[in-house]
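re the bet — no i am not wrong, look at it urself. input seq straight from the record:
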Amino acid sequence: MAASNIAALADHGPAAAAREATRGSPYQPVAIPSTDRALWARVIRHAGCAGSSLDPDQWFPVSMEIGKARQEAAAAIAVCTTCLVRAECLALSLRHRDIGQHGVWGGLVAAERAALPRRRHAAVLSIPARAAS
């Protein structure tokens, strides 16, 4: 998940700390359901990609085929493997397809997320929105 995409999600209220962490991002706040605000704030605050020095293009593979896309995004996926909020990131990308339809989210490229069986989606989507810590 590219940090520049995350910054656009900062909102007032529970996500104020996340907005502060992005140092007053120039992006307009995106309306997100109140049930996910704390989860977004947690992901924004703890995401490994936020402190990554990778070029933003490395988070968005061009290839549609899973193997090639994973090769193109290998450096980004490596950042995800040690991320504290990887599962939450993936869950949010599946809940908010308009935001998470492209790029690497939760260590998976778009084609992998699309290929997840429906019952897997249900399991990932059931991750509770934890209070921001």
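see?? The chain has a mean pLDDT of 74. told u. also The radius of gyration is 14 Å. so pay up
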